[in-house]
Amino acid sequence: MSSASDNLDMPYRTLGRTGRRVSAIGLGGSHIGFKNQTDALSVRIIRTAIDRGITFLDNSWDYHEGASEIRMGKALQDGYRDKVFLMTKIDGRSKSEASRQLDESLRRLRTDCIDLVQHHEILRFEDPHRIFDEEGAQAALLEARQAGKLRYIGFTGHKDPRIHLYTLDVAREHGFTFDTVQMPLNVMDAHYRSFAQLVVPRLLRDNIGVLAMKSLANGIILRSGTVTPIECLHYALNLPTSVVITGIDSLEILEQALEAARTFRPMTDADVAQLLAKTASAASHGEFELFKTSSLFDATTTHPEWLGDEPERLQRLMPA
Prior knowledge:
Blueprint: E1 12-14, E2 21-23, E3 25-28, H1 39-51, E4 56-57, H2 67-75, E5 85-90, H3 95-109, E6 114-119, H4 127-132, H5 137-146, E7 150-156, H6 161-173, E8 180-184, H7 195-198, H8 200-205, E9 209-213, H9 229-238, E10 243-247, H10 251-263, H11 269-283, H12 290-293, H13 299-302, H14 312-315
Parallel strand pairs: 3-4, 3-10, 4-5, 5-6, 6-7, 7-8, 8-9, 9-10
Antiparallel strand pairs: 1-2
Helix pairs in contact: 1-2, 2-3, 3-5, 9-10
């Protein structure tokens, strides 16, 4: 990736231990794969975002049956690939399934190397054990990194901060430190099973890049009637985040994200307290964070086949 150009409207931050400078706002990959928009519009959104200073691009192998990666791959032709820090995610827990998904992502994205690949949807306490098994997905990513197919490794999850902390512990037991961790960080999170309170301090201690997602929870937070989109984005930007990844499915929403970046100023403690007071009641039971309190956002629960097989040595332990 070429160095970020001087863009007065877009702040840039260091991505944890990677040392890479990336835009404080990242373009979410799910929204550019929606079926109700054309390939041409998606390409235009992505390229306009890059032209306006966004350098961090999010994606996943499972978004819209590959449509998000395919569209992003098209957008990154004609010199755009060199301007961005490209991230995608894989669902496979087994080594073979993770390898297959990664190679498919590389083909769709039309690149020889993805800057950051993350283990996606770490939602269960058994997930880190499957990943770090000798037949697990981490072995596939380490081999891919050695082969030059990827640069950095992280993980994502949206269910419970305790699962994030446990995953970090399991990684440490295996002598590995993640480069990045992605999680929900928003004005509701502060009041209910808070990733900001429980996970972020650990990441800062270990110099792991903090990737925020669901700052508006796909618009669900706005239905509470307590906050505006700009307030949501400003709050997430005010946390010690490396990138705030936000869904952008139109040029108008892109302008909203860019406006949030342009107008952001560090908030005082009083500003934060006032904003969180507005959301305290609505947030108290996770009603507007359905990714924590329901399975509606759990793609790997709907499609367990994406995870791959359990390790053979464990299957052999099961009674006949």
